Amino acid sequence: MSTKEYIKNFIKDPNIASVTPTSKQGVKEVCSKMSFENRVVIIEYGPATGVFTDYLLNQISHDSVIITIELNENFVHYLKNNVQDGRVHIHHASAERVQDIMDEFGEQADYILSGIPFTLMNNEVRRNIVKQTHSVLKPGGKFLPYQTFFQRDRHLKDHLHEHFSSVQDRYVFRNIPPMRVYEAIK
Ligand SMILES: C[S@@+](CC[C@H](N)C(=O)[O-])C[C@H]1O[C@@H](n2cnc3c(N)ncnc32)[C@H](O)[C@@H]1O
Asked: How far apart are the first and last CA of the chain?
């Protein structure tokens, strides 16, 4: 998708929350906490135009799976037309439906990547998504949200501590805007 088109979507939909897709360096940084040696089941919340999806498809094995959950209809349409790989399952839904989606899929996930804007959500929605996220991960599975650098602990980190046994965060400056990146382990 062209930058102009991405920005048009951003202006129409506040849930997009970032004026440009994550940079290549940002994608690599977030994914550096994943291992691709074995088959993996990955969930991606808010893939938008698929910058993470594309990167992951080059890393994962032929029998691995990526389940994307995207709220914006235009991005879902774009993904369906541009990511034609049998390993990717594209859902037009909110991350609030992850439990139902994974019940239907019949497996738990190794990793969940997430660019959805927890800062803009109300507390109940945040809690609900983090709780369901924890429940659909395998033991030892990782939740890897990447957020804007100014995010407060109450917007996400405090919720992660409620459910996950280990929570770490760091800042990634090779992205516009810089990101606050978390690693929460079940
Ligand atoms: C900051 S953008 C990240 C886009 C992309 N992953 C990237 O790194 O460039 C946030 C994305 O999350 C989507 N989104 C926002 N709220 C969502 C929700 N509750 N469930 C699923 N997707 C959501 C938006 O439509 C948008 O595509």
From this structure: 35
Distance, CA of 158 to CA of 154 (rounded, Å): 5
Q: Per residue in 78-136, pLDDT tens? A: 999 999 999 999 999 999 999 999 999 999 999 999 999 999 999 999 999 999 999 99
> Closest residue (by CA) to atom 6 of ligand 1?
47
Pocket of ligand 1 (CB under 6 A): 15-18, 21-22, 45-48, 51-52, 69-72, 75, 94-95, 115-117
Q: So what's the pLDDT on residue 9?
A: 79
Return the CATH number of 3-185, one of 3.40.50.150, 3.90.1170.30, 3.90.550.10, 3.40.50.720: 3.40.50.150
3-state helix, strand, coil in the chain (%, to 5): 40, 25, 35
Peptide bond between residue 14 and the one before it cis (omega within 30 degrees of 0): no
Is residue 83 within 8 Å of residue 54, measured between CB atoms?
A: yes
pLDDT of residue 6: 81
